[in-house]
Amino acid sequence: MILGKGLRSSSIPSFYVSYISKKNKNYISCGYEKYGNPRVIMQMKNFGMWLDGYPAISVDINNNTTYSIAIVNPYNISNSFTLEINSLGIKKSFRVLAQSVRQINLCNIIKEKLWTGQFYTYGKNRLITFVINHNSEKISQITTVEHSDPFRAELSYQPRLQFFRNLVHKKIKYIRSIFNN
């Protein structure tokens, strides 16, 4: 049962997928839009490329845990992308065939037994990126599957004058709505 303020349901929203196993950990993963992610559309418009990242990778071979990246190409043409791990100076290009998935085990690229950090993927044509935490010896023993997060091409700082203008605008709109009703 899912409980919370304003929520009481025994079902999971349709964009979530439940992975259930008798031997391994059960987990829920959310899906991803195939084409229409608004942030990616904004990236393509402003930068001419897509950029995804994931901030919380932790590879620990001694505890048999690592991550892989699954790159989905839903298009009818092959696409290339770059995987970048700045803290290790890694920048590698990969190709994903049309309507295919390519999986990249990060411990094979990082070549370190213990590492924590983040990665970025980017390219000229959008690909869908999933991040899979799994056993370093058996990739089928999955802990979690997450989607990456698109780089947000938006302001995180709002100048005081802009904040004040927006506040005044909202108040004027509110007052007008009172008199129009």
Topology diagram in text:
Elements: E1 2-4, E2 7-9, E3 16-19, E4 27-30, H1 38-47, E5 50-60, E6 65-73, E7 79-85, E8 90-96, E9 100-105, H2 106-110, E10 114-123, E11 128-135, E12 142-147, E13 149-150, H3 160-180
Antiparallel strand pairs: 1-2, 3-4, 5-10, 5-13, 6-9, 6-11, 7-8, 7-10, 11-12
Mean pLDDT: 80
The count of β-strands is 13
Count of separate DSSP helical elements = 3
**Integer tally of domains:** 1
> What CATH architecture label applies?
Sandwich
Q: Give me the secondary-structure category.
A: alpha+beta
- Measured by DSSP, the beta-strand proportion falls in 35-45%
Helix content: 10-25%
Major sheet size, sense and barrel closure: 5 strands, antiparallel
Strand order, largest beta sheet = 8-7-10-5-13
- The ordered string of helix (H) and strand (E) elements is EEEEHEEEEEHEEEEH
**Structural Rg:** 21 Å
- Overall body shape: elongated
Which fold name fills CATH's third level, the topology?
Jelly Rolls
Q: What is the name of the CATH class?
A: Mainly Beta
Q: What does this 3D model show about the protein?
A:
- The protein is of the alpha+beta class and about 180 residues long.
- It has one domain (about 25-170): Jelly Rolls (Sandwich).
- Helices cover about 20% and strands about 45% of the residues.
- The protein has three helices and 13 strands; from the N terminus they run E-E-E-E-H-E-E-E-E-E-H-E-E-E-E-H.
- It has helices spanning about 40-45, 105-110, 160-180; strands at about 1-5, 5-10, 15-20, 25-30, 50-60, 65-75, 80-85, 90-95, 100-105, 115-125, 130-135, 140-145, 150.
- A five-stranded antiparallel β-sheet has the order 8-7-10-5-13.
- The longest helix has 21 residues, at about 160-180.
- The chain is elongated and about 70 Å long.
